[in-house]
Amino acid sequence: MLARQNIRINALRMFSSSMKTMTTGGLPLDASKLKIVNKSTPSKPRPNDELVFGQTFTDHMLTIEWTKAKGWDVPEIKPYGNLSLDPSACVFHYAFELFEGLKAYKTSDNKITLFRPDMNMKRMNKSAARICLPTFDSDQLIALIGKLIEQDKHLVPEGKGYSLYIRPTLIGTTAGLGVSTPDRALLYVLTSPVGPYYKTGFKAVKLEATDYATRAWPGGVGDKKLGANYAPCILPQLEAAKRGYQQNLWLFGPEKYITEVGTMNVFFAFKNSKTGKKELVTAPLDGTILEGVTRDSVLSLARENLDPNEWEVNERYYSINEVAEKAEKGELLEAFGSGTAAVVSPIKEIGWQGKDINVPLLPGEQSGPLTKKVAQWIADIQYGRKTKDNWSRVVADLN
Ligand code: COI
């Protein structure tokens, strides 16, 4: 048993080290070559209350073509518009597609900052390497995204819960139905002024625990931001919605481990009646969990701000059965999802085996006390009220 496990771990190590050494030949991505074509009439900003997540785009987009023969071509910022692709392009048939999601914020001192873009670029390159699409220099793409935001800076919304959502996307564009490594690709970046991800804003949601479908599995690609990971997740969500739940809670394996919620990472807070301590817990990054930037931010801020005499912060396996048992004993304190789009999304109820597990909320409020604090810690950094390491990168100064 142990020998079999060691063989698997070694095989996975060999596989990931071969991914690290995979290089992209030809010209490197070079932000200094940027060409800009302006839209003739700039749009006016829409009022915040009209912004529906991902429905409005700014005036310009960034596109960069790649070919195996030449490498990365000249980056272009041009008016937002349709793409023209061969209908046999491999993106349409074999899902050579990956994306990222990050946000830019208008800060209290009138600057526009990107939140932890280095983390997104790192993950984007990992996703690209896994599906044989070209990798690139992260700093060059961050610089180009900065230029794109600067171009449409008048469209970045202001205010609590408002930001510019940035969607870098990489697709294989090789024409033909043979299944092989793409020799052409297109990297493009869209920007979308957004408000809260859920129309209801910061409001606790009801989840249904799903054990009849699996989001990701060991040795799979659940930790990569591939479009192909998202489409199969809609049906279980619709099933949950039919029974009155807004999202589903993904379980894995016979142990029914809790992995993610909808398209987000998930955290639970427990009380340990024996030690008297509290625990903030999320699933470990074992290759089946998306390496969420918000997940990482929550963990860092919790480790920094919570009193270790009162709290433990753990990345460990835990199951829906453990949550149900703890709820019975009054030891379930809080639960929330974390992701770029919704940032922190409180949970109030989990449907499991025909019963609802109640997650306590503060009286008359939409979350528990820790969830509220975590959301505040992150927002303070995103909106420039506080600083932390190099988390906020200034891309435009509006003063
Ligand atoms: C996120 O919140 O991180 C997401 O990936 C959501 C996105 C798919 C809309």
Tell me what you see in this structure.
With 399 residues, the protein is of the alpha+beta class. It has two domains: 11-194, D-amino Acid Aminotransferase, Chain A, domain 1 (2-Layer Sandwich); 205-382, D-amino Acid Aminotransferase, Chain A, domain 2 (Alpha-Beta Barrel). It contains eight helices and 19 strands. It has helices spanning 2-21, 90-94, 117-130, 138-151, 234-242, 293-305, 320-328, 369-382; strands at 35-36, 60-67, 71-72, 76-79, 97-99, 102-106, 111-115, 163-172, 184-194, 205-210, 247-252, 257-261, 264-271, 278-282, 311-315, 332-339, 343-352, 355-358, 392-397. Strands 1, 2, 3, 4, 5, 6, 7, 8, 9 and 19 form a ten-stranded mixed sheet that branches. The chain has a six-stranded mixed barrel with strand order 10-11-12-13-16-17, surrounded by four helices. Strand 14 (278-282), helix 6 (293-305) and strand 15 form a beta-alpha-beta unit. The protein is globular. The termini are far apart. The model is unreliable at 1-23 (pLDDT under 50). The structure holds 2-OXO-4-methylpentanoic acid.
Brief synopsis:
The protein folds into two domains: 11-194, 2-Layer Sandwich (D-amino Acid Aminotransferase, Chain A, domain 1); 205-382, D-amino Acid Aminotransferase, subunit A, domain 2 (D-amino Acid Aminotransferase, Chain A, domain 2, Alpha-Beta Barrel), CATH 3.20.10. Helices cover 25% and strands 28% of the residues. The chain contains eight helices and 19 strands.
